[in-house]
Design a protein that fits this description.
Largest sheet: 5 strands, parallel
Number of strands: 5
Shape: globular
Helix content: 25-40%
Length: 130
């Protein structure tokens, strides 16, 4: 794995948003990213709330990858998506570059903006200008 999109469960635990809409957006995002060989990881810390644990089970039902410990390999690029008020660092031991996206209360995370950034990066590294 050279790069990864990591979503903190706090981005999903907004009671003002529809859980099913978020779920299907994540499934779509994962499929789009997978076509570019960029993994989507959902980070749910061990000490997470029962609602966050429910999210972990829900997204695992769609075969999305849930992690509760830091990624142990070196990554060149990480896109880190968090919810409002989450100050956690990305769960990676080594990353050359981290791009952060934070969702606001009542507003679904800007998946398209994050995905565009990831795909632009992936395209540039796959087909460098020159």
């Amino acid at each position: 794995m050279r790069e990864a999109v990591i979503v903190h469960v706090s981005a999903l635990c907004d009671p003002l948003l529809d859980a099913d809409d978020l779920f299907y957006a994540l499934v779509h995002l994962e499929r789009e990213l997978r076509s570019w060989n960029v993994p989507l990881l959902i980070y749910v810390p061990e000490e997470a709330s029962p609602y966050a644990q429910w999210w972990a089970t829900y997204v695992e039902s769609a075969a999305l990858r849930v992690i509760d410990e830091p990624v142990d390999e070196r990554l060149r690029q990480v896109w880190w998506v968090t919810g409002w008020g989450c100050d956690d660092s990305p769960p990676v031991r080594r990353a050359d570059r981290i791009t952060k996206f934070r969702s606001e209360p009542g507003i679904e995370p800007r998946w398209q903006r994050m995905m565009t950034a990831a795909l632009e990066y992936r395209a540039v590294t796959a087909f460098p200008p020159g």
